[in-house]
Amino acid sequence: MKAMILAAGRGERMRPLSDRMPKPLLEAGGYPLVEYHLAALLKAGIREVVVNLSWLGDSIRDALGSGGRHGLSIAYSPEGPVPLGTGGGIHHALPLLGADPFLLVNGDIWIDLPFDQLRRPAGSHGHLVLVPNPPHHPGGDYGLSANGHVQPAPTPLTYSGLSILDPRLFEGCEAGAFPLKPLLDRALAAGRLTGQQHEGAWSDVGTPERLAALDAALRLGQFHHPVLESPVG
């Protein structure tokens, strides 16, 4: 399986930190956020990674290079000065990802779920890791049935930013900028959207305040990554 890390966003809510550094390179617990993902991918046996680029993309390319330092092979999917959105960015990268299902992870989240614990059922076009609704997103995104099918309501769960997607999810899409959620909703309506709930540690690192809270939790030992351990002090 290949993987894609979403790293093209501007990070408006993270300003002023994101004015000088792309969100995936911001540090928490002594490591850039993207380093946690790379370590988790390697641990899960995933070696081929695609990273999309737009805002400050050269900084990401310079930091990660070809991936050899991390034991990985990294290919890049440049989107130009204006990001294509989550859906458009993935669609643009499909030639690099190939025809098989791939793991997708947002570059600006932190999660302690080992990536090899994701289990996509046969026939699923999207398999989402869902977490209990955080305070900043009380309305949630989806529900989850007892047999693992994602439901539209009630919505006690939020999409974590970690999933396995099948390229068939993007059938009929044209090149350009578009969001991912309408495609997930289409798969849900067709009975092809599944998920699993994660009860462990997770952070949507979307603001300087949430980044600071994650950094503190890691340094105090409140959160532990399955591969990288944060330094203390």
Structure description:
A hairpin with a 5-residue loop joins β9 and β10. Helices cover 24% and strands 24% of the residues. It is an alpha/beta fold and 233 residues long. It has 6 helices and 13 strands.
Shape: globular
CATH topology group? Spore Coat Polysaccharide Biosynthesis Protein SpsA, Chain A
Q: Strand arrangement, largest sheet?
A: 5-4-1-6-11-8-12
Structural class: alpha/beta
- Tell me the β content: 15-25%
Largest pleated sheet: 7 strands, mixed
Average pLDDT: 93
Q: Give the distance, in angstroms, between the N- and C-terminal Cα atoms.
A: 37 Å
Q: What key attributes describe this structure?
A:
233 residues, globular, Spore Coat Polysaccharide Biosynthesis Protein SpsA, Chain A, alpha/beta, seven-stranded mixed β-sheet, two-stranded antiparallel sheet
Question: Briefly, what is this?
Answer:
The protein is α/β, with parallel strands linked by helices and 233 residues long.
Topology readout:
Layout: E1 3-6, H1 17-20, E2 27-28, E3 31-32, H2 33-43, E4 48-53, H3 57-64, E5 73-78, H4 85-97, E6 102-106, E7 109-111, E8 126-132, E9 143-144, E10 150-151, E11 157-165, H5 181-189, E12 193-197, E13 202-204, H6 208-219
Parallel strand pairs: 1-4, 1-6, 4-5, 8-12
Antiparallel strand pairs: 2-3, 6-11, 7-13, 8-11, 9-10
